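To whoever picks this up:

The parser on our side crashed when reading a file containing two proteins. I've narrowed it down to the boundary between the first structure block and the second sequence. Both blocks are reproduced below exactly, byte for byte. First block:
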Amino acid sequence: MDFIEIKVRFSEVEPWKDVFASMLGEIGFDSFCDGEDENELCGYVREDQYDADAVKNLMESHGFPVTASYTLSKVESRDWNAVWEANYEPVMIGSCYIRAPFHQPRPDAKYEIVIEPKMSFGTAHHETTSQMIEYLLDEEIAGKKVLDMGAGTGVLAILAHKRGAAKVVAIDNDEWAYRNNVENNAKNGITDMTVVLGDAGSIGTEKFDIIIANINRNILLNDMHAYAQALNPGGVIFLSGFYADTDLPIITECCNGLNMKYISHKEKNRWCAAKFTI
């Protein structure tokens, strides 16, 4: 499977790299990394999901006070591991250490997660993933049923499993992410996680005590009713993939309309993760 790579060079970095990564994510790009320097962002989308008109409209009509020049090229999927090995560093978040197979273990970490990221989102480098990890480290998970929507690499589902969840279901609508999640489960010695290739319609009638959804604002709003129906009374849902200033009020209003109450949120570089209960 081949991919389309976009390289965007900014006249100034903050906060535009994150802003454009979010907008590109809404038109199909699902993996990002730094380019040759801090002023450049690289994004990747599967060739069969690439929308040239959407990219052109976004990049040439964004309306933001920043210069964002860009180039597009086709890359082969086999190049991805080399890209990540050159750019991917291990991350320590609280007591959780996330590393790739080519990094050394860290015996002092309470939870160690091995992730082969490939083209899937979720390496704990992005603010949304790291904030979700912080929430999961603070939450009582042992013995509970957990659903991870838009699971990507499976890093959040794997952490929930390592923290003693009674059952973990991980769902993603991208076949590459699905296979990557299965592979990462094996790397972490997990054999009993349910990994599903699908969307919110794949939840069915099963109920969960904890739901994790680190996706983006539009998908969260579209699927929130399904999340609410799948949450046990007294259960909690952690949402991320959106901005605190512009998106959190909209997310909160949607949740309130489904009897889910705001508990708290975390914020870093405008990116937000929020906790609600039902």
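<<boundary where parser fails>>
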Amino acid sequence: MTSNLNSFDGQTVLIVGAASGIGRATATLIQSRGGKVIIVDVDISGLNSLAKELLLDQKQVKSTDLGNQESIKTLIASVIAENAQIHAVINSAGVVGPTNTKAEDIEWAAFERTVTINLFGAIWLTQAILPHMKANKYGRIAHVASIAGKEGNPGMHAYNTSKAGMIGFIKGIGKEVASEGIVINALAPAVIRTPMNADTSDATLKYMLERIPMGRVGEPEEAAEMLAFMASRACSFTTGFTFDASGGRATY
């Protein structure tokens, strides 16, 4: 076994939300470090594009609906059946949901959809993979949260709620599985240059950018570097934590 703890040689890494943005950059980086990546998304076109770019086998390309628990269970069962072990799971999938919306104007269906995909999906994914990781006495789980989960952004109530809930869930799970060879952490980015922000209102983007001391948006590759560490053997004594990727907006 390699002595380089940042290497993914011999490891299988499941990346949910891999068709674009942070997930795509992370899949590319982890494969470059020797990992076998299984890329997952609802965006089939984006997945096929990435698969072609990375020369992936068709069994390394999976579609799932993060808002559907049975779809997630099927995904995990399929990947386990086709691979000796899932060493790490990285979840960067999510939706922004309504922006620039007053609290009293929240439409429940849109609120519920955002929370279901972002929060429930993360919980269902964690539930599905934990028994496998416990059996192997090893696992790395990394979910992409958001600075909105720490500080809140006005007019983004569903998104704030989903990401704050994710951070709280991860804190508890980290303590629960700490003695079983499994670490689980979150990453809280500020605005990253991804397609996900295409539907975010100009007012909301302006609000978020003005609060970044570095004065710029983050790049997907910068977030990918942190997620790769969180999914590696090098991340061995940090769990239940939320890493920062906000250009200095949050320092806690």
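After patching the parser it read the second block fine. The domain at 12-245 is CATH 3.40.50.720 (Rossmann fold). The helical segments are 21-32, 44-54, 69-82, 108-136, 147-151, 157-176, 202-210, 220-230.
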